[in-house]
# Entry
Amino acid sequence: MPLKRLDSQKDIASYKETEGRLFSATHEELLTGWTTDIYFLKTRDVLRSAGLLETPVVAEVFTRKSGVFAGLEEVLRLFRTFPAPPEVEAIPEGSTFEGKEVLMRITGTYESFGLYETVLLGMLASSTGWATAARECVEAADGRNVLCFGARHVHPAVAPVMERAAKIAGCSAMSCILAAKLCNEEPKGTIPHAAILIVGDTVKLAKLYDSQIPAEEPRIVLVDTFKDEAEETMRVAECLGDKLSGIRLDTPGERGGVTPDLVREIRWRLDIAGYKDVQVIATGGLTPERIKMMNDAGASVYGVGSYITHGTSRDMTMDLKMIDGRPIAKRGRLPGIIDNPRLERVL
# Structure
């Protein structure tokens, strides 16, 4: 039985838990209001009893820290499911912003969007935090590609949201299958250590991999599983020859991690052996600072996961600034609309 869009506190009693279901919200639950905070549903009942639920209001959204704005499209998709969606203005996704800058302005009756304050702020807060961290890595890479490998570090229900935010911030590709498909792209990634461990030898795995993937797909092979990374690199290069597109380094911290010196040595050995077109792809616990160190050492591509997923969420705030045409605000905030020429009508 389809869920009813929440309208009053009485509707909560209609919810029936499905035994054994996952704890993440379904799209239907999200769109019908079941992930909002209870006090917004109580507000509907209170305002309705006073005949004020349809009061015209203007709300503005901001956060106290600067960052890269993301999550707008998901909010708009939420609003488009409403019977009578409000008018929305916002800065473009991917834009940098300053703390306290108005990022979004919503105009309509309180009934048209008030119940979803929790939902829309959460969408913006998470995506903006991820996008901000991803942009730091992209800028550190100085023109080199940065791939988002962060799906394993977040709940799978939001992995596509996270990787889309990274894409908006400038990452060149995503490893999460659904994330890429939702962005009308193809997922990117090579093989894990598990494949090499099971096969028992990196070169043997490289041959199998080459025989199985489509001809147009790049041949990229991990080289840190069994032997010295430089040794494995040359063994794989000699095996695949001109077919080899890149080698990926993911040396664990127990062995010192991926260092600039390691990248530099492998780049040197590849070059003097005639494999100048083979890219060195660095992954594993990368940060913007480490990426900058790898640039001069000869890394061509970076795979970043935890730094993006651990990006600090931007705590979004939505304030009512106009009620029935009158400027208003809670104590400590400026009443009335705050001008931002960067806002564009998006809904």
